[in-house]
Amino acid sequence: MNWLCPVCKKPQKASPHVDGLIHIHNGQMYHLKPFKKETKQRGVDTVKSLKQEVWDLFSEWVRRSEADENGYCKCVTCSRRDHWTKFQAGHYIHGTLFLIPELVHPQCPVCNGFRAGMAIEYKEWMIKKYGEAAVNRFTLLAKQPHKFTVFELQQYKKLYQGKLEGLKE
């Protein structure tokens, strides 16, 4: 925890278990006040914050684009039907490049979470939809290392905001 002297504005570090600190200036005691350092400038996009924003937009687009005119979609692994707001955007391959639309589809929370994505059923569904050769290409593409830049994520953000606007109309 950091503490700030009101006179010299000099920060003092102390254990988080400390309830208070005293700082002395010219024989006068001052009680220091705790403060947290600002870790991010407000209003400035970071890769981390943009990744979350883009994921939220992309995830909504995936679920809504697969939904019917009443807002219902089907889980790709168990075929359960429910409103798109009750579904998740499930990855065919976890821990990979997350913005490949062919690798992310609506899944119910049970399959995506509690059943760890149901990889075997998901792969069978993928092969039926895209064919084995395409699934192999997607798999290679997904495993390529990629570090997003702020600019790139800002472009994805605009793209999926536009796609969502098109679905809402």
Q: What does it look like?
A:
This protein has a three-stranded antiparallel β-sheet with strand order 2-1-5, with no helix packed on it. Helix content is 40%, strand content 18%. The protein has 169 residues and is α+β, with helices and mostly antiparallel strands. The N and C termini lie far apart (50 Å). It has two domains: 2-35, no CATH class; 47-168, no CATH class. The model has no long low-confidence stretch (mean pLDDT 84). The protein contains five helices and nine strands; from the N terminus they run βββββαββββαααα.
Short description:
The chain has 169 residues and is of the alpha+beta class.
Helix and strand pattern: EEEEEHEEEEHHHH
Into how many domains do the coordinates divide?
2
User: Low-confidence parts, pLDDT < 50 over ≥5 residues?
Assistant: none
> Percent of residues in helical segments?
25-40%
Described by the principal axes of the CA atoms, the overall outline is elongated
- What is the structural class? alpha+beta
Tally of helical runs:
5
What's the N-to-C terminus distance?
A: 50 Å
- Beta-strand proportion: 15-25%
Read across the widest sheet, the strand sequence of neighbours is 2-1-5
Report Rg: 24 Å
Report the average pLDDT across residues: 84
Count of β-strands: 9
| Main β-sheet description | 3 strands, antiparallel
